Amino acid sequence: MALGPDITLAEGDAAPAFTAATNGGGTVALKNFKGRHVVLFFYPKDDTPG
Fold first, then answer.
1. What are the E-state strand segments in the chain?
2. 25-38: per-residue pLDDT in tens?
3. What is the value of pTM for the model shown?
4. Which residues is 27 bridged to in the sheet?
5. How does pLDDT run across 6-15, given as a tens digit for each residue?
6. What angle do CA 33, 37, 39 make, to 5 degrees?
7. CA atoms of 48 and 50, how far apart (whole Å)
8. CA 3/CA 33 separation, integer angstroms
9. CB environment 19-44: b (16+ within 10 A), e (fewer)
10. Which contacts of 15-22 are long-range, i.e. CB under 8 A and separated by 24 or more positions?
């Protein structure tokens, strides 16, 4: 599993710039959504503990 930088955010903080893999094999970058509302939803990988 890839590990990212150790970042602590509080409610209301701006999200740090990032690029992430998509489930379709591409990538998505936060900068592509500048000026738009974005909802980030994280969950553990299906069928794994945690």
1. 19-21, 27-29
2. 999 999 999 999 98
3. 0.57
4. 21
5. 888 899 898 8
6. 95
7. 6
8. 24
9. eeeeeeeeeeeeeeeeeeeeeeeeee
10. 15/40
Beta bridge partners of 42: none
What is the amino acid identity at position 41? F
SS3 33: helix
C-alpha to C-alpha distance for 12 and 15, rounded to whole angstroms: 9
Q: What is the C-alpha separation between 32 and 30, in angstroms, rounded?
A: 5
Contact assessment for residue 31 and residue 18, using Cβ atoms and an 8 Å cutoff = no
Whether 45 contacts 37, CB under 8 Å: no
